[in-house]
Amino acid sequence: MTIGEKLRKLRGNKTQTKLAKELGILPSAYSNYENDYRVPNDEVKKKIAAHYQKTVDEIFF
């Protein structure tokens, strides 16, 4: 499973825009992560992991 697929599954029915706002990042950046165009930097990885109460390793490795 790719990082983007993991992120999509975790997001569920929430919109990318709503989640990006909750994380404090641009919706276009979050879309790039879900579409596997880019990998988030370490700071954003930590924000995403904390949001889902998971470790960075569980999501990104």
Structure in words:
It is built from five helices and no strands. The model has no long low-confidence stretch (mean pLDDT 98). The chain has one domain: Orthogonal Bundle (434 Repressor (Amino-terminal Domain)), CATH 1.10.260. It has helices at residues 3-11, 16-23, 27-34, 42-51, 56-60. GO terms for molecular function: DNA binding.
CATH-level-2 architecture = Orthogonal Bundle
Unreliable spans are none
Please give the radius of gyration in angstroms.
10 Å
* Average of per-residue pLDDT values: 98
> The biggest beta sheet, please?
none
> Helical stretch count?
5
Helices and strands in order, then pairings?
Blueprint: H1 3-11, H2 16-23, H3 27-34, H4 42-51, H5 56-60
Helix pairs in contact: 2-3
What are its keywords?
single chain; 5 helices; 434 Repressor (Amino-terminal Domain); mainly alpha; 61 residues
In brief, what are we looking at here?
The protein is 66% helix and 0% strand. The chain has 61 residues and is mainly α. The mean pLDDT is 98.
